[in-house]
Amino acid sequence: MSAGQIAALIAAGAFVLLVVLLAIPLIKLGRTLDEATIAIRKAHENTDPLLIGANDTITHVNTQLERVDGITANAQAVSGNVSALSSVFTATLGSPLVKTAAFSYGVSKAIRARRKAKTGAEGRHTRRGGKATS
SS3 sequence, the chain? Predict the structure, then answer.
């Protein structure tokens, strides 16, 4: 065996060693890609029931929102009716009630003033301002 053949055998052995060392990470990368493919496939299979459930939930929410819209419309109608009723009440009974209240307040004030004046005229000395002193 000549020196060239020995060098060729060493170079061939180094090349085989290099190929083996590079093959190990490539095999691991292939396994990782297989696992990723399986995980993606499972995720895809599990998304169908999830999307169907989300669709059912959205349909239910839309039904409830339609009910809330009806309730809101009815509440608005009731509010308008109450406003109209309060306007009618104010127009028909408000003014006479205010006048009656003012009249009764004036009468009670006059009665109190008369009583104070009567008690002051019975012999008690009064100061300026109408307060009786003993």
Answer: CCHHHHHHHHHHHHHHHHHHHHHHHHHHHHHHHHHHHHHHHHHHHHHHHHHHHHHHHHHHHHHHHHHHHHHHHHHHHHHHHHHHHHHHHHHHHHHHHHHHHHHHHHHHHHHHHHHHHHHHHCCCEECCCCCEEC
- The answer to whether 98 and 107 are in contact (CB under 8 A) is no
CA distances from 10 to 1, 2, 13, 15 (A): 13, 13, 5, 9
Structural contact between residues 40 and 32, judged by C-beta atoms closer than 8 angstroms: no
User: For the chain, what is the largest distance between any 2 Cα atoms, rounded to a whole number of angstroms?
Assistant: 157
126, 120 contact by CB (below 8 A): yes
Interval 78-98 mean pLDDT: 82
CB half-sphere exposure, 59, CA atoms < 13 A: 6
What single-letter amino acid sits at 42? K
pTM of this prediction exceeds 0.85:
no
Residue 128 is encoded by which pair of tokens?
A: 């300026």
